[in-house]
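#onboarding

Welcome to the new folks! Below is a worked example of what a typical request in this channel looks like: someone posts a single protein sequence, and someone else replies with the predicted structure as tokens. Don't worry about understanding the tokens yet, we'll cover that in week two.

Example request:
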Amino acid sequence: MVRMNKVLIAGNLTRDPVIRKTSKGMAVADLGLAVKDGYQGRNGNSEESTCFVDLVAWDKQAEHCGKYLVKGSPVIVEGRLLFEQWKDKDGNARSKLKVNADRVHFLGKPAEADAESGPARGGRGRDRDEEER
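Example response:
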């Protein structure tokens, strides 16, 4: 039986990363990604669609996402598909397919390096002097 679960996807974040901690103190980042796709429609005109993908990053990768990424940041993500199932408050079966990010490659300038906007939004960043200590 063949087994392979590998995802490589590129796009822009749809929102600022949401960082939380597990009960054991490990960082978890929830991210949203918009991936544009272009194709030629039946009428011969160029068409464009957008696929929205939920991502989750863990530990140091999650911390770096929270520190350096903001809504609109371009990234390439390497990861695996993750299928989640649960029951909602009414007892209905729910499911969601998301990407468990093994690596998030930052393509743009880090948010805190932008002199005009200062640290990443929400006070998540530190200034350079603090980092060098």
